Amino acid sequence: MRSICWNLEALTTRDNKGETPIGIARRSGACAEIIGLLSLTPEARLLGYKEMPPLYASVGHWSDQMVGWFSSRSWADCHKFINENDDELVREVLKFNNSALLLNIAMQSQVYTESLVFLALRMIHRNPLSLIATNFQGHTMLEFAESTQFNACREI
Questions:
Q1: How many Cβ atoms are within 10 Å of 93's Cβ, its own excluded?
Q2: Closest Cα to residue 154, out of 104, 119, 111?
Q3: How many angstroms separate the CA atoms of 146 and 43, rounded?
Q4: 22-56 pLDDT, tens per residue?
Q5: Residue 126 in contact with residue 98, Cβ under 8 Å?
Q6: How far apart are CA 32 and CA 137, in angstroms?
Q7: What CA–CA distance (Å, rounded) separates 125 from 55?
Q8: For residue 100, what pLDDT is reported?
Q9: Inter-residue contact 126 to 92 (CB < 8 Å)
Q10: Other residues' Cβ atoms within 10 Å of the Cβ of residue 95
Q11: What is d(CA 152, CA 141) in angstroms, rounded to the nearest whole number?
């Protein structure tokens, strides 16, 4: 997506076989979202970096949004996202990056509150496997719950 926004010429370049990125994507069986993104008109490409992620990389975009809400302790925004979006998108966002959002909420939230617990329970309900998914260090959320660093996680 960054190439689309910042390097528009890259879309018209050709490889040693004379194929453009859209031709390569079509031939290799890329998903509809990638083909759609590569097929954008020059005007649509002017959407810019802030407008494109929700349309073409919604899972990563909403995951980043939730991390921001965790940092600012905007639990209401997290609940609103869960309420207003379809279950499939919410599940994919919660599964993104090996369920890192559940760990992130524990790291950002050292104080136990009812809203925090309710949010964590809603997240676990939507993606129960988040409790046993491992992070980049090979630890699960249940293992992190035993750590003294994550008081809110233990409470939850």
A1: 25
A2: 111
A3: 52
A4: 788 888 888 777 777 777 655 555 555 566 666 66
A5: no
A6: 33
A7: 26
A8: 79
A9: no
A10: 18
A11: 12
Distance, C-alpha 44 to centroid of its chain: 23
Length, in residues, of the chain: 156
Tokens representing 132 are 């046993």
Task: At 35, list the tokens.
Answer: 């083909």
Question: For residues 72 and 27, what is the distance between their CA atoms, to the nearest angstrom?
Answer: 44
The DSSP code for 85 is S
Spatial distance between the Cα atoms of 32 and 150, rounded to a whole number of angstroms: 40
pTM: 0.62
pLDDT recorded at residue 73: 83
pLDDT digits (tens, 9 = 90+) for 83-105: 999 888 999 998 887 677 877 77
Q: Assess contact for 110 and 73: CB atoms under 8 A.
A: no
Helix or strand (DSSP H, E) at 121: helix 114-126
Q: If DSSP codes are grouped into helix, strand and coil, which group holds residue 4?
A: helix
Average pLDDT, the chain: 76
* Packing angle of the helix pair 114-126, 75-84 (nearest 10 deg): 30
Question: Coil, strand, or helix at residue 45?
Answer: helix
